[in-house]
Each structure stands twice: as structure tokens, then as C-alpha cells.
Amino acid sequence: MERPARLCGLWALLLxxxxxxxxxxxxxxxxxxxxxxxxxENLCTVIWTWNPPEGASPNCSLWYFSHFGDKQDKKxxxxxxxxxxxxxxxxxxxxxxxxxxxxxSEKPSILVEKCISPPEGDPESAVTELQCVWHNxxxxxxxxxxxxNASPDTNYTLYYWHSNLENIHQCEKIYTDNQYxxxxxxxxxxxxxxxxxxxxxxxxxxxxxxxxxxFKIVPLTSRVxxxxxxxxxxxxxxxxxxVQWEDxxxxxxRCLSYEVxxxxxxxxxxxxxxxxxxxxxxxxxxxNMENTxxxxxxxxxxxxxxxxxxxxxTNEFCYEDxxxxxxxxxxxxxxxKRNSTLxxxxxxxxxxxxxxxxxxxxxxLKRLKIIIFPPIPDPGKIFKEMFGDQNDxxxxxxxxxxxxxQIKEETDSxxxxxxxxxxxx
Length: 425
Prior knowledge:
It is found in: Membrane. GO terms for molecular function: cytokine receptor activity. Interleukin-13 receptor is a complex of IL4R, IL13RA1, and possibly other components. Interacts with TRAF3IP1. Interacts with IL4. Residues 1-24 form the signal peptide. The chain is α+β, with helices and mostly antiparallel strands. Among the domains are: 34-116, Immunoglobulins (Immunoglobulin-like); 128-224, Sandwich (Immunoglobulin-like); 227-334, Sandwich (Immunoglobulin-like), CATH 2.60.40. Helix content is 23%, strand content 33%. It has helices at 2-22, 340-372, 379-387, 392-424; strands spanning 34-41, 45-51, 63-68, 75-77, 81-85, 92-99, 112-116, 128-135, 139-145, 156-161, 169-170, 173-177, 180-186, 199-206, 214-219, 224-225, 230-237, 240-246, 256-264, 269-274, 292-297, 306-314, 332-334. It has a 5-stranded mixed sheet, with no helix packed on it. Strands 4-3-6-7 form a 4-stranded antiparallel sheet, with no helix packed on it. α3 (379-387) packs antiparallel against α4. The longest helix has 33 residues, at 340-372. The protein starts with a helix and ends with a helix.
């Protein structure tokens, strides 16, 4: 029994050896690729090409492992070239190696690196805040600020390219807006092709070579700004406000989200987000209206003046960027308008009436005080006037005036009391 056990052990070792060598040849490191070169097509398309390694094993089916300098975008493919759209504002490098399988764990040959440097020039002279917006899928508008070290008399030129163009085009419509420069160009042909495969390559420079060129890649699934909607009809039905509007051209309704704002004459503002396709089943709306949407606004009072406006943006179902709102639509109003003339008249009359009532009340209270608390003559003042340093004529008239004043006050008090008694009867 001991000999067969040894035979089984030897047979197991033999099977292991066959298993290790029978499936594939032992892994061996291949020579590096040769003649790695880099070039730029269009504005921002960088292309690397290389030749197969010299002295590679004839039993090896060559594959090429490549990645960029930061070890991103790793790729294993049989092609001897690789391309990438990248803005050439910074240095970018590609490393390439050869191997005999698609297994990432396999150690490739020595990696060969090739880099492309940014254009020459002072980095502080390049434009800053270069931004581009695709307006209503019809035209693209780019804007930028001059570089810190750029001359004030710099003549900027914008170049653009996308896959539907054979050559690089120059933007002709340069404009200024306060501190910003900008340019707009037609971009209607791209919408007929698939979005995810397209982007626009942008370069801004001056033809005199005084500034460093600046580059930007604009994906066509981002930075899309629709035109504002057009409100067609407003009406009340069963206590609700119905709003119908015309969608922006060139868009599919499911790719848009809306915001409806209703402001009334009582300074109250209601805002509603409409994300799904907005449709209203109501006979008041025009039938067979293509490219139109509808929304029912609850809780709006018909006895006040209501102002409605709408704005729109792209949503995440079709676009990457869903934060760029259109401008507000033209405002439309519905409801009863407050009589402004009557309102202003009341504002003027009410304060006058209140002031008049206060004055009458004060006068009445003063008269009532005199009746209840009649004035008491001051003897000291009388004696002072009688015996003061005055001549006889003056003293005589002073006494007469004092006497007349007392008689008048008493008479007024009596007359007022009689009038009040008559009024009470």
C-alpha cells in the first residue's frame, strides 16, 4: 500500500506541472514599443502613435497597455495608436507598454513615455474665465476676461472646431461687455447627430503672438440654455388657474423642466416646479397644439390681479448640466385689477379726516375744561398792577381792562353752559 501512495503523489505533481505549462506559455516580459510620437489635430485632439516592439516573441499576441501620467484612463488594446481630446493648457504625457494578454495583472514591458507641452508664452497673459454656453441649440456664445499681463490693446481671436466641420473656423462676431470679451458663432448642425459623441474645441489667442493661447473643450451635453417659453393662454376653471405655454424650439419636451411663478396684487408670490411633461386635459385649450405644455396652478384667487411668468432649463434625462435657467418669459396677467384711483383717494382722505377729528376733540375738551374748572383770578397780579410804579391814567386803564376781562370770561362761561343745556334738551 505504500508504493501506490507514492505513485499517486508523483502523478499529482505531474498534473500540476502540466497544468502550469499546458494552458499558455510561461509569461515573459516583452521588449518596449518603438518610435512613440505625439501630434495634435484640429485644436485639442492629441494623437499618440507607436510601432510594435522589436524582438517580440513569435508566440505572443501583442496587446498595448497605456495610461496618462496620473495613471488615469488605463487602456489595453491591440491598436498602435491612442487619441484624446484635451485642452492644451497644461503638459500631458502618455505611457505605453507591450504585453501578451489583456490581463491587467500581467507585467507589461518597460513603459515608454511621450509628452506634449503647452504652447509657449507667459501663462499670466492667457485669457481667464473662458466660458461657453449653447443657446437654444442654435448658437454658441463664449466669453472671457483678459489675462493679468495682457496688453489693453490686444486683438483677440476665437477659433472653434467640432466633428461636423472639416476645417477649423474663426469666430467673426467679437464683442465687448464691460470687462468681458466674447464671440458667438452658429452651431445648429451638431444637434442632428448624437450628443454624447460631440464636443466643441475652443482656442482664444491673438494673431500677433503677444499672449499665450488658451484652450477649452465644451461637451454638448452641458452648458445648454434654452430660450424662454411663450405664454399662450391663462384662464380660471373650478377655482384653479390654468397656464398654457409654447415650448422652446429645438428641444424635446421630456428633456426640459419648468418653473412657474405667480404673483398677485396682495404681494404674495407662488413658485411651482414642473419636472414631468406638463399636459392638461381641458377643452378650453387649443387642441392639436404641438410643442405646447400646460400646468394647473392651485390656490389662486380670481378676485385679485395675478401676474404669471415662466422659465425653463434642461434636465438630467438628456443633459449633464441642469442648473442653467433661461430668462423669464414675458409676463401675462389675469384677474381683477384694484381701482388705483379709489385707493389713492382713500389714502389721502383718511389722514385728513382723522386729523380733523382730533382737532375738534381737542377744542371740545378745552371748552369742557373751562366749564368744569373756571379760571380763578390771581389777586397778587391784580394788586401788583394796582399799586405798581404807574401813573394814575395807566392804573385806571389797567383796572378797567382787568375788570372787562373778568366780565367777558364769566359771560362766555354762562353762554356755553346755556348752550349745553339746550343741546341736552
